[in-house]
Amino acid sequence: MRIGIVGYGSVGKALHQLIYEKAWDFKNKYGLVLQVVFVCDSSGCVYKESGISPPETLKVKEAGKSLSSNFRVEPVIDTIKKGLVDVAVECTPANFVDAEPAYTHIIEALRSGSNVITTNKGPMALYMPTILEEAESRGLVVLYSGTVGGGTPFIYFADNALRGNKIISFRGILNGTSNFVLSKVINEGSSIEAAISEAKRLGIAEADPTSDLNGTDSAAKLVILLNHVFEDKYTLKDVEISGIENGIPNVDSSHTVKLIASSTPKPKVSLEVISKNDPLNVDGTYNAVEFNVEELGNVYLIGKGAGGKETAGAVMRDLVELKNRLQVQYFRKSYMRAL
Ligand SMILES: NC(=O)c1ccc[n+]([C@@H]2O[C@H](COP(=O)([O-])OP(=O)(O)OC[C@H]3O[C@@H](n4cnc5c(N)ncnc54)[C@H](OP(=O)(O)O)[C@@H]3O)[C@@H](O)[C@H]2O)c1
């Protein structure tokens, strides 16, 4: 399987390294031969027909340089449009205003015949129905398990672990940065500002954590989960969003405050006072989702919500899923031809 990595930061670099380390395992376990043939940063794309081994490009990025400083690069969109790969992996920064440049990367990859895996939630939060329709009309696949929960498989859990059961609703904590800040304020009496500074110092919060704290990032993940679980066509504008910017309510010792994303009665992200005994009372950077299932009652999944390596791990999961989907398509086509 020929792979192109668009965006060579924490996730893109970890993915390249992981593909290299797991090559033998993937071949033996899944019959999947993985080869990274291009990697792109904001300066352009490096392409090598025979495959790029990570040390070649990683040491340039680890030295804080752009790919163009050491390699001959092509504009990102030109490389994507050539349709050189079976799958283009989109991991450029999220943008919740117009989803660019990722939206164009994804659409052009599909138009050039490449399947897509994205860890970037911007395009899925704003244009998920359009993207999935574009893929379907071309018989291609778009996978996005790293967009929600980093490495924790909320999407596959809903798909596979709950297969054959009916999910009625779900609610959960989908943003680790805001949960870290809330935990610090409620449990340790920090001020919001001090908690945010600590999150930045520990590398938990980005330089600009606005979308984590105002609820937009949680809302984007809520949209993706809603569309995936219920096959709906929501976008970000359908979610009522508030975050911790207007202050955090005071609570007694048996309660706490969490930024909760809920599917019902209507899609919403807001601060909620919950009991300390509620299973959603997870602290620090953890994410947690409660699925209310017709046959089972409440089922919970808890795990780390972010991290470059964890999110790259989600892409590895998507690569196996992609192979399975392509195999099913292949057998279906062969069967139809034989009829
Ligand atoms: N990190 C996590 O824990 C995590 C978890 C879940 C989802 N995600 C999502 O995954 C995506 C990647 O995250 P990250 O942490 O790896 O981000 P990052 O470290 O900021 O890296 C972003 C990469 O994208 C490149 N880039 C920026 N604009 C570009 C353009 N126009 N064309 C090509 N490349 C471009 C940057 O280039 P330069 O190197 O030249 O700056 C950089 O290599 C984001 O959408 C993020 O929200 C991240």
Can you describe what's shown?
There is one protein chain. This protein is 42% helix and 20% strand. By secondary structure, the protein is an alpha/beta fold. It has two domains: 2-151 and 308-338, Rossmann fold (3-Layer(aba) Sandwich); 154-304, Dihydrodipicolinate Reductase, domain 2 (2-Layer Sandwich), CATH 3.30.360.10. A six-stranded mixed beta sheet has the order 3-2-1-4-5-6, sandwiched between helices. A six-stranded mixed beta sheet has the order 8-10-9-7-11-12. It binds NADP nicotinamide-adenine-dinucleotide phosphate. Residues 6-12, 40-43, 66, 76, 91-94, 101, 119-120, 146, 150, 306-308, 311 line the site of NADP nicotinamide-adenine-dinucleotide phosphate. NADP nicotinamide-adenine-dinucleotide phosphate (NAP) binds next to helix 1, strand 2 and helix 12.
In brief:
The chain is of the alpha/beta class and 339 residues long. 42% of the residues lie in helices and 20% in strands. It has helices spanning 10-21, 23-30, 54-62, 76-81, 102-111, 121-137, 154-161, 176-188, 192-201, 210-213, 216-230, 308-338, and strands at residues 2-6, 35-41, 44-47, 87-90, 115-118, 142-143, 167-173, 240-241, 255-262, 268-275, 286-293, 297-304.
